[in-house]
């Protein structure tokens, strides 16, 4: 399996090198050169299997020779052993044809754990074999960072620096990043918003001298290995609902487009997905581009679903690459126009996008009303992101079963949930002391040179 850049000008890489490098050197994102497919019979055979077995069968064709089958099976098994639910991604019913896929039973209570727990183990295995050491940098609007810190804390071959927007993550999210005490993980509070953090990470990757000096690696959803791990639960949910014999649709609370793009890969692999509905909060750039073809960035507005507060959605570039039939030059042109404010998708590409994706948005008031309504109607307490999804899903219900992805546990966003329902959601018992643990963080200006200097200093201190 070979991986190519969406912009067509970076070296073609193996899975292993794609995973370790993150962003391509031409500024693009790596995608599989061709997406492997599973037959109707292969998919039918997944129904009822343990999550780990489905994960192995779905991911193995992408991994190539990076791991042998037995090693990969071990990594997958250990990745999900710490989850708080035997089904890993249990499916619940919300209405006659509306289901909720709970993706928040991992160690940091958001879907990011599905990918990060596996990536941590894959990195450790590959780096030990190569005798190498890397520095992971990541930008987070809250959940990626906590999942990465949790997955990499205490590993030997990896230093981790997570940039988060100061004052713009929930207290639970912040504490999940600042309370692990392993010396190799660092939570860095940037004076800016999430897009600034993401731009700093891209800036570090594009500073080749720095990149090579520290052995930079990325675990943001620009890393294809993360997208891959998220493909699996589209298969477990669909086969539980009758696929491949009947189609399924999904509504996905979306920010950086990684989770919903994993659904697109599942569809390309042969899973009968009728529609992928992209759900946004009032930062609705993705809803607008999917309806009109106009991608114009604006101001990031804070919301009660902060993991979706975004104006530049990195993985959308991967969907564009597919919509433009793999034309790297066309994608490069769009991304150049984006640097000066926005672009317009061609008619043909917009049509291709709309064959796979639908979209909708939820205002803050609609999100709160949805949390309240589902608690009353179904007894399920939704986090604000999942509520954005459930609201948009209800506008797309039809004859095909609809699965809304529940991306985080309500206790990660207790203020918004309490405001909606009057009840403060409790943390699961295994992390009940989170609010009492000591915190450790470093605050820094929104400045590339300052962040690079901080990373250099910390690495020297560790080496000394
Ligand atoms: C990361 C995140 C999202 C957005 O996912 P993307 O893959 O960035 O689109 C939505 N909800 C929650 C709770 C998240 O942590």
Task: Report what the structure shows.
The chain has helices at residues 15-21, 40-44, 51-63, 69-80, 112-130, 143-152, 171-178, 194-206, 208-214, 224-240, 258-268, 285-292, 316-323, 328-339, 347-356, 364-378, 384-394, 414-421, 448-463, and strands spanning 3-5, 30-32, 91-95, 98-102, 134-139, 158-165, 185-190, 216-218, 248-253, 273-280, 294-296, 342-344, 357-361, 402-406, 442-444. β3 (91-95) and β4 (98-102) form a beta hairpin. It has 19 helices and 15 strands. The model has no long low-confidence stretch (mean pLDDT 95).
Give the SSE layout.
Layout: E1 3-5, H1 15-21, E2 30-32, H2 40-44, H3 51-63, H4 69-80, E3 91-95, E4 98-102, H5 112-130, E5 134-139, H6 143-152, E6 158-165, H7 171-178, E7 185-190, H8 194-206, H9 208-214, E8 216-218, H10 224-240, E9 248-253, H11 258-268, E10 273-280, H12 285-292, E11 294-296, H13 316-323, H14 328-339, E12 342-344, H15 347-356, E13 357-361, H16 364-378, H17 384-394, E14 402-406, H18 414-421, E15 442-444, H19 448-463
Parallel strand pairs: 4-14, 5-6, 5-8, 6-7, 7-15, 9-10, 9-14, 10-13
Antiparallel strand pairs: 1-2, 3-4, 11-12
Helix pairs in contact: 3-4, 3-10, 4-5, 5-6, 5-10, 6-7, 10-11, 13-15, 16-17, 16-18
Q: Percent helix among the residues?
A: 40-55%
Structural class, from helix and strand content? alpha/beta
The CATH class name of the domain at 87-109 and 224-421 reads Alpha Beta
Shape-level CATH architecture of the domain at 87-109 and 224-421: 3-Layer(aba) Sandwich
How many β-strand runs? 15
Low-confidence stretches: none
End-to-end C-alpha gap = 40 Å
Number of helices: 19
Strand order of the largest sheet: 3-4-14-9-10-13
In percent, how much strand structure appears in the residues? 15-25%
- Shape, please? globular
The biggest beta sheet is recorded as: 6 strands, mixed
| Bound ligands | pyridoxal-5'-phosphate
CATH topology of the domain at 87-109 and 224-421: Rossmann fold
């Amino acid at each position: 399996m070979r991986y190519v850049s969406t912009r067509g000008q970076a070296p073609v890489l193996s899975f292993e090198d794609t995973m370790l490098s993150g962003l391509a050197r031409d500024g693009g994102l790596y995608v599989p050169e061709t997406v492997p497919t599973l037959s109707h019979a292969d998919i039918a055979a997944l129904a009822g299997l343990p999550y780990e077995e489905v994960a192995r069968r779905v991911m193995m064709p992408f991994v190539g020779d990076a791991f042998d089958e037995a090693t990969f099976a071990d990594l997958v098994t250990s990745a999900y052993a710490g989850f708080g639910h035997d089904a890993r991604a249990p499916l619940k019913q919300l209405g006659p044809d509306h289901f909720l896929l709970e993706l928040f039973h991992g160690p940091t209570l958001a879907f990011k754990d599905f990918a990060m727990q596996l990536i941590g183990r894959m990195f450790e295995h590959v780096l030990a074999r190569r005798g190498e050491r890397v520095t992971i940098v990541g930008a987070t609007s809250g959940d990626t960072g906590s999942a990465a810190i949790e997955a990499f804390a205490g590993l030997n071959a990896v230093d981790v620096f997570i940039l988060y927007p100061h004052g713009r993550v929930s207290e639970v999210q912040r504490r999940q990043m600042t309370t692990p005490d392993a010396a190799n993980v660092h939570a860095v509070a940037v004076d800016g918003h999430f897009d600034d953090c993401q731009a700093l990470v891209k800036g570090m990757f594009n500073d080749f001298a720095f990149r090579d000096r520290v052995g930079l690696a990325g675990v943001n959803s620009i890393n294809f290995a993360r997208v891959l791990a998220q493909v699996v639960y589209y298969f477990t949910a669909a086969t539980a609902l009758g696929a491949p014999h009947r189609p399924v649709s999904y509504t996905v609370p979306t920010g950086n487009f990684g989770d919903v793009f994993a659904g697109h890969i599942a569809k390309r692999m042969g899973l009968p997905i009728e529609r992928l509905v992209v759900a946004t909060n009032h930062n609705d750039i993705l809803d607008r581009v999917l309806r009109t073809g106009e991608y114009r960035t604006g101001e990031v507005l804070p919301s009660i679903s902060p993991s979706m507060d975004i104006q530049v959605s990195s993985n959308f570039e991967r969907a564009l690459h597919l919509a433009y039939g793999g034309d790297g030059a066309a994608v490069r042109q769009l991304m150049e126009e984006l640097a000066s404010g926005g672009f317009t998708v061609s008619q043909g590409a917009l049509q291709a996008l709309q064959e796979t994706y639908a979209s909708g948005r939820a205002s803050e008031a609609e999100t709160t009303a949805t949390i309240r309504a589902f608690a009353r109607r179904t007894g399920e307490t939704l986090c604000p992101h999942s509520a954005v999804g459930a609201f948009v899903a209800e506008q797309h219900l039809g004859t095909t079963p609809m699965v809304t992805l529940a991306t985080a546990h309500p206790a990660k966003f207790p203020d918004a949930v309490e405001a909606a329902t009057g009840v403060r959601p409790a943390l699961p018992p295994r992390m009940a002391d989170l609010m009492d643990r000591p915190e450790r963080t470093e605050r820094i200006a929104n400045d590339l040179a300052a962040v690079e200097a901080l990373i250099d200093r910390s690495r020297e201190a560790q080496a000394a």
